[in-house]
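Request: Have a read of the protein record below and say how the chain folds.
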Amino acid sequence: MIWRSVFTPSADSPYPINKVRAVSIVIPVLDEARTINDAVARLYRDAGDQRIEVIVVDGDVRAGALSVIADPRVVQVHSPAGRGKQMNAGAARAGGDLLLFLHADTILPPGGLRLVQRALAASDRVGGAFDLGIDSRRFSLKLIEIVGGIRSRITRLPYGDQAIFIRKNRFEQLGGFSDVPLMEDVDLMRRIKRRKWPIAILPQKVRTSPRRWEREGVLYGALRNWTLLTLYLIGVSPVRLARYYRR
């Protein structure tokens, strides 16, 4: 694969060992045929002259999103459904030294890729995430946004819709995402935390779609998410918790 060889650092690389040379952006999708081209276009516009690789991993048996992708630069991967499975499949194809896992309905802040690189360039941080932002003016969702941001800063356990990023070598050390139907993002960050690897929670906010809260009801969705997280943290299996959550 040409892209992979371009970004494999040589032994005499002029870059510091912790400098990010290229970012692989992994987007797990399911029923996102109408939105995927806009998401891809935004990423390439934001990247400018930065080296990035966009990997779209479709969990739909018909690969509906892959069939409509217009940009030939996109690496297309078909995978069994399940966000953890899909993100692992994308990471396995990645050639960059930094992985950024982005939900299809989440938009990075302006200059987001440069912000990630700056956060890691001169530090021993292994990865991190952005602050939570919800693309809505509703007071109830703004409140959830604020509480979510405080939660992730206190616990150091950001959710996947905060655009988690991690150095690829550290991701491989951890064995990738666990094969669980729920909480794969929190599980990964807990394993990072147990190893006492530092992460960065960037103050800039992503813009994630409010569609899930609007579909289910704001109060119900918020209470359910907080309850599931609490139960998971006290040891309830993600398999059991998945019965009460529909993505």
